[in-house]
Specification:
about 190 residues, mainly alpha, 7 helices, about 0% strand, binds protoporphyrin IX containing FE
Protein backbone atom coordinates (compact mmCIF):
# COMPACT_ATOMS: atom_id res chain seq x y z
CA UNK A 1 0.00 0.00 0.00
CA UNK A 2 1.43 3.42 -0.95
CA UNK A 3 0.13 6.95 -0.41
CA UNK A 4 -0.73 7.41 -4.11
CA UNK A 5 -3.22 4.53 -4.06
CA UNK A 6 -4.74 5.65 -0.74
CA UNK A 7 -5.31 9.08 -2.35
CA UNK A 8 -6.76 7.36 -5.45
CA UNK A 9 -9.19 5.59 -3.11
CA UNK A 10 -10.17 8.98 -1.61
CA UNK A 11 -10.57 10.35 -5.17
CA UNK A 12 -13.04 7.56 -5.98
CA UNK A 13 -14.80 8.07 -2.63
CA UNK A 14 -15.36 11.74 -3.50
CA UNK A 15 -16.70 10.63 -6.90
CA UNK A 16 -19.16 8.19 -5.30
CA UNK A 17 -20.36 10.90 -2.90
CA UNK A 18 -20.98 13.27 -5.83
CA UNK A 19 -22.68 10.65 -8.02
CA UNK A 20 -24.81 9.48 -5.07
CA UNK A 21 -25.97 13.04 -4.39
CA UNK A 22 -26.68 13.59 -8.11
CA UNK A 23 -28.80 10.41 -8.19
CA UNK A 24 -30.89 11.61 -5.22
CA UNK A 25 -31.32 15.06 -6.84
CA UNK A 26 -32.48 13.39 -10.08
CA UNK A 27 -35.14 11.42 -8.20
CA UNK A 28 -36.24 14.66 -6.48
CA UNK A 29 -36.56 16.37 -9.88
CA UNK A 30 -38.77 13.57 -11.22
CA UNK A 31 -40.96 13.60 -8.10
CA UNK A 32 -41.26 17.42 -8.20
CA UNK A 33 -42.21 17.23 -11.88
CA UNK A 34 -44.95 14.67 -11.11
CA UNK A 35 -46.28 16.47 -7.99
CA UNK A 36 -49.83 17.82 -8.19
CA UNK A 37 -50.03 19.38 -4.73
CA UNK A 38 -47.73 21.16 -2.28
CA UNK A 39 -47.94 18.16 0.06
CA UNK A 40 -46.51 15.97 -2.73
CA UNK A 41 -43.81 18.45 -3.80
CA UNK A 42 -42.63 19.73 -0.41
CA UNK A 43 -40.62 16.74 0.91
CA UNK A 44 -38.77 16.29 -2.41
CA UNK A 45 -37.88 19.99 -2.57
CA UNK A 46 -36.58 19.82 1.00
CA UNK A 47 -34.56 16.67 0.31
CA UNK A 48 -32.96 18.25 -2.79
CA UNK A 49 -32.07 21.35 -0.75
CA UNK A 50 -30.35 19.20 1.90
CA UNK A 51 -28.51 16.90 -0.50
CA UNK A 52 -27.08 19.71 -2.66
CA UNK A 53 -24.90 20.71 0.34
CA UNK A 54 -22.84 17.56 -0.32
CA UNK A 55 -21.57 18.76 -3.73
CA UNK A 56 -18.83 21.13 -2.43
CA UNK A 57 -17.41 18.21 -0.38
CA UNK A 58 -17.30 16.00 -3.49
CA UNK A 59 -15.79 18.74 -5.70
CA UNK A 60 -13.11 19.69 -3.15
CA UNK A 61 -12.39 15.99 -2.54
CA UNK A 62 -11.97 15.31 -6.26
CA UNK A 63 -9.80 18.35 -6.86
CA UNK A 64 -7.66 17.95 -3.73
CA UNK A 65 -6.94 14.25 -4.26
CA UNK A 66 -6.52 14.75 -8.03
CA UNK A 67 -4.05 17.58 -7.42
CA UNK A 68 -1.98 15.35 -5.11
CA UNK A 69 -1.80 12.51 -7.66
CA UNK A 70 -1.03 14.96 -10.49
CA UNK A 71 1.88 16.50 -8.59
CA UNK A 72 3.11 13.08 -7.42
CA UNK A 73 3.15 11.03 -10.62
CA UNK A 74 1.74 13.08 -13.53
CA UNK A 75 2.32 16.68 -14.62
CA UNK A 76 0.07 19.74 -14.72
CA UNK A 77 0.46 19.83 -18.51
CA UNK A 78 -1.05 16.33 -18.99
CA UNK A 79 -3.81 16.87 -21.59
CA UNK A 80 -6.53 14.60 -20.13
CA UNK A 81 -6.01 16.22 -16.73
CA UNK A 82 -6.14 19.82 -18.02
CA UNK A 83 -9.27 19.23 -20.11
CA UNK A 84 -10.92 17.44 -17.16
CA UNK A 85 -10.14 20.37 -14.86
CA UNK A 86 -11.89 22.64 -17.41
CA UNK A 87 -14.84 20.20 -17.35
CA UNK A 88 -14.92 20.32 -13.58
CA UNK A 89 -14.99 24.15 -13.73
CA UNK A 90 -18.08 23.96 -15.98
CA UNK A 91 -19.73 21.62 -13.44
CA UNK A 92 -18.84 23.99 -10.58
CA UNK A 93 -20.30 26.99 -12.47
CA UNK A 94 -23.42 25.28 -13.82
CA UNK A 95 -24.34 23.68 -10.49
CA UNK A 96 -24.91 26.70 -8.26
CA UNK A 97 -25.32 29.45 -10.88
CA UNK A 98 -27.79 27.72 -13.23
CA UNK A 99 -29.37 24.75 -11.41
CA UNK A 100 -29.11 26.36 -7.96
CA UNK A 101 -30.65 29.67 -9.09
CA UNK A 102 -33.53 27.92 -10.88
CA UNK A 103 -34.11 25.59 -7.93
CA UNK A 104 -34.33 28.64 -5.68
CA UNK A 105 -37.02 30.12 -7.98
CA UNK A 106 -38.94 26.84 -7.78
CA UNK A 107 -38.68 26.91 -3.97
CA UNK A 108 -40.05 30.50 -3.95
CA UNK A 109 -42.92 29.49 -6.23
CA UNK A 110 -43.78 26.53 -3.98
CA UNK A 111 -43.79 28.78 -0.91
CA UNK A 112 -45.96 31.41 -2.66
CA UNK A 113 -48.28 28.68 -3.91
CA UNK A 114 -49.49 27.77 -0.41
CA UNK A 115 -51.24 24.48 0.37
CA UNK A 116 -53.38 22.50 -2.02
CA UNK A 117 -53.05 22.04 -5.79
CA UNK A 118 -49.95 23.44 -7.46
CA UNK A 119 -50.52 26.46 -9.69
CA UNK A 120 -49.21 26.99 -13.21
CA UNK A 121 -46.03 28.83 -12.05
CA UNK A 122 -44.84 26.12 -9.65
CA UNK A 123 -45.59 23.35 -12.16
CA UNK A 124 -43.77 25.22 -14.94
CA UNK A 125 -40.68 25.83 -12.77
CA UNK A 126 -40.59 22.15 -11.75
CA UNK A 127 -39.98 21.39 -15.46
CA UNK A 128 -37.64 24.35 -16.07
CA UNK A 129 -35.39 23.32 -19.02
CA UNK A 130 -32.41 25.24 -17.56
CA UNK A 131 -32.74 23.43 -14.21
CA UNK A 132 -33.01 20.02 -15.87
CA UNK A 133 -30.31 20.67 -18.48
CA UNK A 134 -27.74 21.94 -15.95
CA UNK A 135 -28.47 19.02 -13.59
CA UNK A 136 -28.26 16.23 -16.18
CA UNK A 137 -25.50 17.79 -18.32
CA UNK A 138 -23.35 18.01 -15.17
CA UNK A 139 -23.74 14.26 -14.66
CA UNK A 140 -22.83 13.77 -18.35
CA UNK A 141 -19.70 15.92 -17.96
CA UNK A 142 -18.64 13.97 -14.87
CA UNK A 143 -19.03 10.67 -16.76
CA UNK A 144 -16.99 12.20 -19.60
CA UNK A 145 -14.27 13.01 -17.05
CA UNK A 146 -14.41 9.42 -15.75
CA UNK A 147 -13.75 8.35 -19.36
CA UNK A 148 -10.76 10.71 -19.54
CA UNK A 149 -9.36 9.55 -16.20
CA UNK A 150 -9.58 5.87 -17.15
CA UNK A 151 -8.66 6.06 -20.88
CA UNK A 152 -6.26 9.04 -20.75
CA UNK A 153 -6.88 10.24 -24.33
CA UNK A 154 -5.22 13.22 -26.05
CA UNK A 155 -6.64 16.75 -26.02
CA UNK A 156 -9.18 16.14 -28.83
CA UNK A 157 -10.41 12.87 -27.34
CA UNK A 158 -10.71 14.42 -23.87
CA UNK A 159 -12.75 17.38 -25.17
CA UNK A 160 -14.95 14.99 -27.21
CA UNK A 161 -15.65 12.84 -24.13
CA UNK A 162 -16.77 15.85 -22.08
CA UNK A 163 -18.75 17.41 -24.96
CA UNK A 164 -20.37 14.01 -25.65
CA UNK A 165 -21.30 13.64 -21.98
CA UNK A 166 -22.80 17.13 -21.99
CA UNK A 167 -24.87 16.48 -25.12
CA UNK A 168 -26.23 13.12 -23.86
CA UNK A 169 -27.08 14.65 -20.45
CA UNK A 170 -28.79 17.66 -22.07
CA UNK A 171 -30.74 15.40 -24.46
CA UNK A 172 -32.05 13.32 -21.53
CA UNK A 173 -33.00 16.54 -19.72
CA UNK A 174 -34.90 17.89 -22.75
CA UNK A 175 -36.81 14.61 -23.01
CA UNK A 176 -38.23 15.21 -19.50
CA UNK A 177 -38.23 19.02 -19.13
CA UNK A 178 -41.95 19.31 -19.73
CA UNK A 179 -44.98 18.60 -17.60
CA UNK A 180 -45.96 14.89 -17.60
CA UNK A 181 -49.24 13.99 -19.26
CA UNK A 182 -51.86 13.65 -16.52
CA UNK A 183 -54.27 10.78 -17.11
CA UNK A 184 -57.84 12.07 -16.91
CA UNK A 185 -60.89 9.91 -16.21
CA UNK A 186 -62.87 9.13 -19.40
CA UNK A 187 -65.86 11.43 -19.89
CA UNK A 188 -69.15 9.71 -19.05
CA UNK A 189 -72.08 10.33 -21.40
CA UNK A 190 -75.11 11.69 -19.50
CA UNK A 191 -77.89 9.06 -19.35
C1 LIG B 1 -15.45 15.28 -11.83
C2 LIG B 1 -14.14 15.21 -11.64
C3 LIG B 1 -13.34 13.93 -11.64
C4 LIG B 1 -13.73 12.64 -11.82
C5 LIG B 1 -15.14 12.12 -12.10
C6 LIG B 1 -12.56 11.81 -11.73
C7 LIG B 1 -12.54 10.43 -11.86
C8 LIG B 1 -11.42 9.65 -11.75
C9 LIG B 1 -11.38 8.20 -11.79
C10 LIG B 1 -12.60 7.30 -11.98
C11 LIG B 1 -10.09 7.81 -11.64
C12 LIG B 1 -9.56 6.37 -11.60
C13 LIG B 1 -8.84 6.05 -12.90
C14 LIG B 1 -8.06 4.76 -12.86
O1 LIG B 1 -7.58 4.34 -11.78
O2 LIG B 1 -7.88 4.14 -13.95
C15 LIG B 1 -9.29 9.00 -11.52
C16 LIG B 1 -7.94 9.03 -11.37
C17 LIG B 1 -7.17 10.16 -11.39
N1 LIG B 1 -7.62 11.46 -11.41
FE1 LIG B 1 -9.53 12.04 -11.44
N2 LIG B 1 -11.48 12.62 -11.51
C18 LIG B 1 -11.92 13.92 -11.44
C19 LIG B 1 -11.16 15.05 -11.21
C20 LIG B 1 -9.79 15.08 -11.22
C21 LIG B 1 -8.99 16.28 -11.13
C22 LIG B 1 -9.56 17.69 -10.99
C23 LIG B 1 -7.68 15.88 -11.22
C24 LIG B 1 -6.46 16.72 -11.19
C25 LIG B 1 -6.32 17.86 -10.60
C26 LIG B 1 -7.67 14.46 -11.33
C27 LIG B 1 -6.54 13.67 -11.43
C28 LIG B 1 -6.53 12.30 -11.43
C29 LIG B 1 -5.31 11.50 -11.44
C30 LIG B 1 -3.90 12.02 -11.49
C31 LIG B 1 -5.71 10.15 -11.42
C32 LIG B 1 -4.83 8.92 -11.34
C33 LIG B 1 -4.72 8.29 -12.69
C34 LIG B 1 -3.99 6.96 -12.63
O3 LIG B 1 -3.15 6.77 -11.74
O4 LIG B 1 -4.26 6.13 -13.50
N3 LIG B 1 -8.97 14.01 -11.33
N4 LIG B 1 -10.13 10.09 -11.57
Amino acid sequence: MDTYHVVLFLHLLALFIGIGAAAVISICLFRLRAAQTLAEAGPWGQLAGQVEKVFPVAILGLFGSGAYMTSDVWTWSTHWIDVSIAGLVIVVLQGPFVAGTRAHKLKQALMENGGGALGEKARRLACDPALWTASFANVGIVLGIVWNMTQKPGTGGSIAAIAGGYVVGAAIAWRFARAPVVETAPAVEPA
